[in-house]
Design brief:
Length: 661
């Protein structure tokens, strides 16, 4: 080797050592394709995905599709939403996909916006970036992914680094091309606080996560909203959350009904719950108002619950509002281990005993609360009672269903392991039966009988599958319709199935929960039952129905369209995006299953047919084509243009199954 070769090689080494690369990664794993460089799942509609081109050549985006798999959906079943990319992405540049109602701080960098499922992902949804995707078979090349197909994590993937209420910045360029394996976001991303938008629009991997905010024992905040009897909104946020779940107490729920019937508050559990829930909300609103400055006292060892809400006691001056709600009978004391300060525990338990002895609020004799809030939630959400109940006086614990064996002023809720670890022993008579019990007898019934059966009744029903919505299969048999709730809903529309399970209710929607399902293979034609809007009620819940000659009045933020008929009756149509139906348009027919949630009956949009205008003899007016050319590249800087997600194609006068998107 001569001296010239040595000098040349030294120069090359020097160049390599001094060159600043935009990002770093494992040498053999560096992506040679698009990669998800930033993920925003923030408050409200602050949702965005940033894609980065790490290659040295422009990438044509038209062959790429981002798919959101909702709540454990996979390639074969469940709710999916997709968005087709467009344009060209230059080397070392980014492409931002954002919800159309996101913050301006996000939208100013957005290249593609929309409001459908793909844009409205949550922390428990899986996102997969495909190349050359066949949307009929979902076959394509996986370029990158976040989450795990076929698995619903509950609220988010990950532990310390989570996919909920966060901004995630890519820490290296190794893609996740296997969306079916276990997913840990900390292996790919650095987490920043919720609603951090400083990095969107340009990619840098050398982002340092801030030191976690250490919880304080007290915060001074301003009340921005009274949500219900035990929940308020505050400003500024505490540990990234604006929601305070008031601790050591529990008020009746209000979410399940729009309004209570005064004639049913003493005979119907749901109306009794709503009645007392409204009273509790009113009482809390009189104790503290929007704009009030309050103190939040937090247990620093457990400052948040599983939903990310701050657990705290609210003080107005020296008045403990939580304690006052219990003392006046609007709330029951409610302690889930760890209890914390036992002096505080006894204050609340003395207060609930006082309210009960004085027959105040929920303890009144005239309109007694029929079901304590935790019992109502266990029933209405179909989860059942799950926590063991400890008696703080005797140090014994009881099975979840035997909570009434302990007076309310002595109850602490545990897992069995927690109860034993704290010195509690199983109360006499609480052991599981040792003698064999008779197996439950499942009785074959018609769907109308299953709908009116008591909760947890073992039944067998047969029906034709009319519609599939994630884990819910709508079936009917001529007597009525019902939801079969199952992890496996890989049925064919029109197929007859037999389901053996127990009756349940989820937020008021009748269902049978089971994994014991037999597919007959026999196929039937699904015929929509034509009903008037006034008949969209309990009678037809679960059935596949048709509404005729209805006009769209409005659409809300949840993609629910209010339609009205000529008689003035109205009902909601649940779509997947703001573009599924057109406000002001009259539709000859809208079909889908009649569902129920959040106090309203609503039709899940499956098909919509617009009125077809009579042909005219006049010559149509044809607009001259625009001479502007579409922007195939990417606008830079402040003049970057936003592109909107295209509407569903309604020509010729028909929208077909937007849920299959």
């Amino acid at each position: 080797m001569n001296i010239l070769h040595i000098i040349r090689n030294l120069a090359l080494c020097l160049i390599m050592l001094t060159t600043v690369f935009p990002i770093t990664s494992s040498a053999n794993d560096v992506s040679q394709d698009l990669i998800i460089s930033e993920y925003i799942e923030g408050s409200s509609y602050n949702k965005a995905i940033e894609l980065y081109n790490p290659t040295s050549t422009p990438i044509d985006l038209s062959s790429y599709t981002l798919v959101s798999f909702v709540n454990g959906a996979n390639l074969e079943q469940g709710t999916k939403g997709s968005v087709q990319l467009e344009g060209t992405l230059e080397p070392n540049d980014v492409y931002v996909i954002a919800h159309q109602s996101a913050s301006d701080a996000i939208l100013q960098h957005a290249d593609l916006t929309g409001g459908s499922t793909a844009f409205n992902f949550n922390g428990d949804d899986t996102l997969v970036l495909f190349k050359n995707l066949n949307k009929d078979t979902y076959e394509g090349t996986v370029v990158d992914s976040i989450g795990q197909l076929g698995f619903d994590p509950g609220s988010a993937f990950g532990q310390d680094v989570r996919t909920q209420d966060t901004t995630l910045i890519r820490s290296h360029l190794t893609p996740d091309k296997n969306p079916e394996d276990n997913y840990d976001p900390s292996a790919y991303f650095t987490a920043l606080p919720k609603d951090t938008f400083d990095h969107i629009g340009s990619f840098q991997s050398d982002v340092t996560a801030p030191e976690p905010e250490q919880p304080q024992s007290e915060y001074t905040v301003t009340v921005s909203k009274v949500t219900d009897g035990d929940t308020i909104k505050i400003e500024p946020a505490i540990l990234g959350s604006n929601t305070i779940r008031m601790t050591n107490m529990d008020t009746p729920e209000t979410y399940h009904l729009g309004a209570y019937d005064a004639e049913l508050i003493d005979s119907n559990h749901d109306h009794s719950q709503k009645y007392h829930g409204d009273l509790a909300t009113k009482a809390l609103s009189e104790m503290i108002s929007v704009g009030d400055t309050v103190t939040i006292k937090v247990n620093v060892d457990k400052p948040t619950d599983d939903y990310g809400r701050i657990l705290g006691q609210v003080y107005d001056g020296n008045t403990n509002i939580n304690l006052e709600m219990v003392k006046q009978g609007y709330a029951v004391s409610y302690f889930i281990y760890p209890v914390g300060d036992m002096n505080v525990y006894h204050q609340f338990q003395d207060a609930v005993k006082y309210a009960k002895d004085q027959q105040l609020g929920i303890w009144q004799t005239e309109h007694t609360l029929m079901e304590l809030p935790f019992v109502f939630r266990a029933r209405s959400q179909g989860k059942g009672l799950q926590r063991y109940v400890g008696n703080s006086d005797t140090k014994e614990y009881y099975l979840p269903e035997n909570y009434q064996d302990i007076s309310v002023e002595h109850r602490i809720f545990f897992t069995e392991e927690q109860a034993k670890a704290n010195g509690y022993t199983l109360a006499e008579g609480q052991d599981a039966p040792t003698e064999p019990t008779e197996p439950e007898q499942y009785k074959q019934v018609t769907i109308d009988k299953a709908r009116t059966a008591a909760q947890n009744t073992p039944v067998i029903v047969e029906g034709i599958v009319t519609y599939i919505d994630g884990k819910n299969a709508y079936i009917e048999d001529g007597t009525g319709g019902i939801v079969v709730r199952s992890e496996n809903t890989s049925f064919n529309i029109g197929e007859q199935i037999t389901a053996q399970g127990k009756t349940s209710s989820y937020f008021g929607l009748s269902q049978i929960v089971t994994e014991d399902i037999t597919q007959s293979g026999a196929m039937n034609e699904v015929i929509a039952k034509e009903i008037d809007l006034s008949e969209a009620n309990e009678t037809h819940e679960g059935q596949y129905v048709a509404l005729t000659n209805v006009t769209v009045q409005s659409v809300n933020e949840y993609n629910e369209f209010l339609v009205k008929d000529e008689a003035g009756h109205t009902v909601l149509i649940k779509g997947q995006s703001q573009n599924d139906l057109e406000v002001g348009q009259t539709y000859a027919k809208i079909t889908g299953p009649l569902s129920y949630s959040y106090s309203n009956y609503k039709v899940l949009l499956d098909d919509a047919q617009q009125h077809v205008e009579e042909p005219t003899t006049e010559e149509p007016t044809v607009e001259s084509p625009s001479k502007e050319k579409p922007n195939k590249g990417k606008a830079k800087g402040k003049n970057k243009q936003k592109k909107s997600h295209p509407k569903f194609d309604t020509h010729p006068s028909k929208v077909k199954n937007p849920h299959a998107a």
